[in-house]
UniProtKB/TrEMBL annotation:
Name of the protein in question: C-type lectin domain-containing protein
InterPro entries: C-type_lectin-like, C-type_lectin-like/link_sf, CTDL_fold
PROSITE patterns in alphabetical order: C_TYPE_LECTIN_2
Coiled-coil region: none
Sequence ranges assigned to domain C-type lectin in this UniProt record: 75-170
Domain of life according to the entry: Eukaryota
Length: 174
């Protein structure tokens, strides 16, 4: 895990910021398994907006940690809370990540994870190569957000995004 040097980070690594020229370092490059962190700085360059830069922290591998936030929020509120107080909403990229998440939750509980079916991607915009849907799920086009169901071996279910559940974030705090 590590942080990219400030000099090599464009304001939007995914190339969606029109202020970043196409030849900026990392412009248009999807960096897998990264979480965006915002630091307020009083600097300005042709590629960095005044007052803010975006750094990216690697959150993958055997040392990745998760935290269960036992407050009840709708999915969007949970996402905002994770980004404000931790790093981002948890992403289960493989069975090992899903198992780590499952171990934090009491049996019989549901909790949001960082998958929203509006875009079919995780909150960090990576694809959903690994899935762990409960049999028959997802089962409703109106249910766009994903909870982990810990009565069913950590299997996932789709739910309406305005329902309130506890949620998982990546470990670490600001």
């Amino acid at each position: 895990a590590g942080i990219l040097p400030v000099s090599s980070v464009c304001a939007d690594v995914n190339g969606e910021d029109p202020a970043c020229p196409p030849n900026s370092p990392f412009s248009g490059l999807l960096l897998p398994r990264l979480v965006k962190i915002w630091y307020q700085l009083q600097i300005s360059t042709s590629c960095l907006r005044l007052g803010f830069i975006f750094l990216w922290v690697l959150v993958s591998g055997p040392n990745v940690t998760f935290v269960l936030v036992e407050q009840f929020f709708p999915w969007a509120g949970a996402l905002a809370n994770c980004r404000q107080y931790h790093t981002d909403m948890a992403v289960a990229r493989d069975p090992s990540d899903n198992q780590k998440i499952k171990q934090l939750m009491p049996i019989g509980q549901y909790a949001w994870i960082g998958l929203n079916r509006n875009s079919l991607t995780w909150v960090d915009r990576t694809s959903t190569a690994f899935t762990h849907w409960r049999s028959g799920e997802p089962n409703s086009p109106a249910e766009k957000c994903t909870v982990a169901n810990f009565d069913d071996s950590g299997k996932w279910e789709d739910c309406p995004c305005d329902w309130n559940f506890p949620f998982f974030c990546y470990g670490g705090e600001f």
